[in-house]
Amino acid sequence: MKFIPTILSGGSGTRLWPVSRTQFPKQFCELFEESLFIKTLSRLKPLGSPWVVTNQSLKTLTDTAMRQSGIPLNQALYEPKANNTAPAIALLCRVLEQKGDLKSVVGIFPSDHLIQNEETFARVLQLGIECAQKGQVVTLGIKPTYPATGYGYIELQDQPFLKKAGDSALYTKGFREKPSEDIAKEMIRAGNFYWNGGMFIFEVATMISHLRRLMPETWAAISELKPDFSNLAEVYSRCPAQSIDYGIMEKLKEQVCIPCDLGWNDVGSWDEIAKLGESSEKIEVSGHGNFAFSKEGRVTTFVDTNDLIVVDTADAILVSKKGSTQKVKQIVEQLQAKKDVRASEHPFEFRPWGRFEILRDTERYKSKVIHVNPGQQLSYQSHQKRAEHWVIIQGHPEVVLNDVVHRLNPGESIYIPQGAKHRIRNPKSDEMVEFIEVQVGTYFGEDDIVRYQDDYQRK
């Protein structure tokens, strides 16, 4: 039996603003020493080489994380648009069908959730795989810790479908929509309701049969996908945006759920981060219960304040009472209404070759710190409206300037005249190249680039 763990990776990046943003959603944020996406890859990798289904806009971030984790890049499927979970799962099933993997078992997992009891997770997953091999679509039911109104619930029967090593896969009575607080309290008291954490296990052939029967429009479109993906955009345009819960799970006459306590958290707000993580450096004077999150190395100080949350980034600061951080979405909406790029963008950007961060951006000059990953190089390019000066901070790069190669060391610099063809490459396999770039000219936009050669086929 082949098991294919698959990560669904999307999100709008609003609930954990200002760290998470549309172009850098929370699964890629280093909220707990490393990103949630890397944690998810690491958790699944021992069970099988993970696949990823995500949006085309997240390709650079996804490829970077997969390289870091040693996952083949051809195991990522890029949707032309966000279309909810049902088309994403249908796309995966169609690709696996084309590969002859109809009898393989797939596990579907969110990219941005935290699971602390990983031994329990691996154990119940094995039970789920056995159930899937017997024709079931399996969910993992999360043991509720409070009457949450933000999650859907799964109501379970007492009748087991399969038992193993103290765990039971139980028949379900059905999925329940997000409840009111009073109903959620009743569910907790009943004891047979579990949170729907968005984790599913099934055999490829089983899911295709359900898609064909219950979502015929979606499967009819997806089944026309060509092996070279040349018609993916057209196919996807004919798929209704629908969740797998609504499209399939709520309509199945029979399914099973494995109730479990995984130390699960969807990390959905700064209040949750404050409960789970340690505060950044802080000083409190006549106050208590305050929490700070800073990637900027600044100390956060509190005077006569209690139970505040402060989130510090390069271009925005969030201050909130504990218990109120769900309202962060309203801040993002106000920024969006003003067309403020800080709603969606950071001063830093990831590129296929590495990343850069803007240090200053004025009418007269623009400065950046740029990192080039081992073995990578920027495109061979020129600029019509600016000249550049590069100062090497770390590494031993090669700079190609008008077809002449210059080898530089830390502390050395090179001037790139306006209109000159140039690129920088990192020939080493074990070190990062870091340099400061200062641009001087009349325009500093990223669109002032003429490319003559590019490893990543950008125009």
Condensed summary:
The protein has 459 residues and is of the alpha+beta class.
Can you describe what's shown?
- It contains 11 helices and 27 strands.
- It has 459 residues and is an alpha+beta fold.
- It has 3 domains: 3-265, Spore Coat Polysaccharide Biosynthesis Protein SpsA, Chain A; 270-338, no CATH class; 348-453, Jelly Rolls.
- The strands form 7 sheets. It has a 6-stranded antiparallel sheet with strand order 17-18-19-26-21-24. It has a 5-stranded mixed beta barrel with strand order 6-9-7-8-10.
- A hairpin with a 3-residue loop joins strand 18 and strand 19 (365-372).
- Helix 6 (204-214) crosses helix 7 (216-222).
- The longest helix has 16 residues, at 118-133.
- The protein is globular and about 75 Å long.
- The model has no long low-confidence stretch (mean pLDDT 95).
